[in-house]
């Protein structure tokens, strides 16, 4: 399993941002190998974090190469006041089974 963690500081959003954000979310969920996602905010709401889970690196790369994702990445300075992406290979996951990525 792989995870892609997108941490960012929100700037000024516009309709184009919201449209691209929705397209990216829909594209991710339609990719075979998409396992789920989580969203978090820091206590002061200054940082937002979206974590996507993937069955394989190939599935993750499909989202990275999706036209809406590429456009958003190219235009991120219009909407964000900074961002960081971490791609990780998950070596273990465990728990009581009551929580799963959505």
From TrEMBL:
One of its GO terms (molecular function) is monooxygenase activity. InterPro entries: ABM_dom, Dimeric_a/b-barrel. It comes from the Bacteria. Gene3D superfamilies: 3.30.70.100. It holds the Pfam family ABM. Keywords: Monooxygenase, Oxidoreductase. This is Antibiotic biosynthesis monooxygenase. It comes from Trinickia soli.
